[in-house]
Design a protein that fits this description.
Elements lengths: L6 H6 L3 H20 L26 H130 L13 E7 L5 E8 L4 H14 L5 H7 L1 H8 L1 E6 L1 H5 L1
Antiparallel strand pairs: 1-2, 1-3
Length: 277
C-alpha cells in the first residue's frame, strides 16, 4: 500500500478547492477586521478605476510536475507491487492447486493400489480356498477310494476265505470219497492176493494201476519192486484177478474230474504185514 502524502489532496484536485477555502477564510478574517474597526473621514481614500490585468495560469509548474512524477512513480511501484502480489498470490494459488491435485492424485493412486491389493488379496484368498476345497475334495475322493478299496479287499478276502473254506470242504469231501473208493480197490485186490511163501515182513512192492471210467483196469506196472520177483508177480496177479472195479462207474458219472485226478492212475503199496492185521 502506497504512503499517504499531504500534497496528494491538492494535486488530486489540481490545488484549487483548498485554495478557494483558504481564500474564503482569509477574506472572512479581513471582513471581520474591517467591520470591527471605526472609520473616520480621514481614512477615506479615493479609489481609482482599477487596472485590469489579465493573468494566465502557468501550465508548467516544475514542482508540481515533480510531485506528479513522484506520485506516478509511487503509483507505478504500487501497481507493480500489486501486480507482483497478485502474481505471487496466483502462483501460490496454482501451487496450492497443484499440491492439492498431487495430493488428490496420490490419494487416488493409493486408493487404486489399495483396491488392486484388495482385489489381489481377494483373488489369492479365492485361489487358496479353491485349492483347499480341491485338496479336501481330493482327500475325500482318496478316502472314498481307499474305503472302497478296503471294502473290495475285505470282500475279496472274504471271497477267498469262503473259496478256501469251500475248497477245503470240497477237498475234505473229495478226500473222503477218494479214500472210500481207494479202500474198495484195496479190499478187492487184497481179497484176490495170494501171498507167496517167500514173502517176509518189511517187503514192499508199489504197483501203478491205469483205470477207465467203467472201472476196468487197462494196465498195471510195478513201479517199485520188492526185490522178490515172486512177491512182485503175486501183486500183479491179484490185480488181474480183481479185473475191474464197477463201483468207480458211479464216481465217474457224478464227478468225472475227481475220477480223472485220482483214479486214472492209481498207486497201491503192497506189504505182507498189511494183510496179516
Amino acid at each position: 500500500m502506497s504512503k499517504f502524502h499531504p500534497l496528494a489532496i491538492l494535486l488530486k484536485f489540481e490545488g484549487y478547492p483548498p485554495a478557494v477555502v483558504a481564500s474564503l477564510f482569509l477574506h472572512g478574517l479581513l471582513l471581520l477586521f474591517i467591520l470591527g474597526r471605526t472609520v473616520s473621514p480621514s481614512d477615506y481614500v479615493t479609489i481609482e478605476d482599477p487596472v485590469i490585468v489579465t493573468a494566465t495560469a502557468v501550465d508548467v509548474n516544475p514542482q508540481r510536475l515533480r510531485r506528479i512524477e513522484r506520485l506516478q512513480q509511487e503509483e507505478a511501484a504500487a501497481a507493480r507491487q500489486r501486480q507482483q502480489d497478485r502474481e505471487r498470490q496466483r502462483q501460490a494459488q496454482e501451487a496450492r492447486a497443484r499440491q492439492e491435485r498431487e495430493v488428490q492424485q496420490a490419494r487416488e493412486r493409493a486408493e487404486a493400489e489399495r483396491q488392486q491389493q484388495a482385489q489381489a488379496d481377494a483373488e489369492r484368498r479365492r485361489q487358496a480356498e479353491a485349492e483347499a476345497q480341491r485338496q479336501r475334495d481330493a482327500e475325500a475322493a482318496r478316502q472314498r477310494a481307499a474305503e472302497q478299496q478296503r471294502q473290495q479287499e475285505q470282500q475279496r478276502l472274504a471271497q477267498e476265505q469262503a473259496a478256501r473254506e469251500a475248497e477245503a470242504s470240497q477237498q475234505a469231501s473229495d478226500n473222503l470219497i477218494v479214500a472210500q473208493y481207494a479202500n474198495i480197490i484195496k479190499r478187492l485186490i487184497s481179497q484176490n492176493w495170494q501171498i507167496p511163501p517167500s514173502a517176509r515182513n518189511g517187503m514192499m512192492a508199489t504197483v501203478e494201476l491205469r483205470l477207465v471210467p467203467t472201472g476196468e483196469v487197462v494196465g498195471a506196472t510195478i513201479i517199485q519192486a520188492s526185490g522178490d520177483p515172486v512177491f512182485d508177480r503175486s501183486v500183479l496177479q491179484a490185480v488181474e484177478r480183481a479185473g475191474s472195479f464197477t463201483e468207480l462207474q458211479d464216481l465217474a458219472q457224478q464227478d468225472r474230474s475227481l475220477f480223472d485226478r485220482n483214479f486214472r492212475t492209481f498207486t497201491l503199496v503192497f506189504r505182507p504185514e498189511d494183510l496179516l492185521r
